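Shapes recur. Our protein:

. . .
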Amino acid sequence: VAIASRGSGRARYRQRRISRTDALVMAIGALAPLGLIGVGVTGDDTLRWVADPLGLPSVNVLACLVVLLLAAPVAVPPAR
């Protein structure tokens, strides 16, 4: 392994700078937990599920939309 590793060239990784698009995607990703905290603070009990009585939990549409913010990186094309 030591002899074979000497024969290969060393690969270097050059980090690219963070662009405005990258910063925007990071900001949108940070809004999701903050939005869930905001939904929880308003007194909405849909984020607390109980098993007694057994049944389907209620769903808050605003909480679902906030969680969808985590899909923002899918909408951005990869940088080159």
In short: The first helix runs from residue 2 to 7. DSSP finds four helices and no strands in the chain.
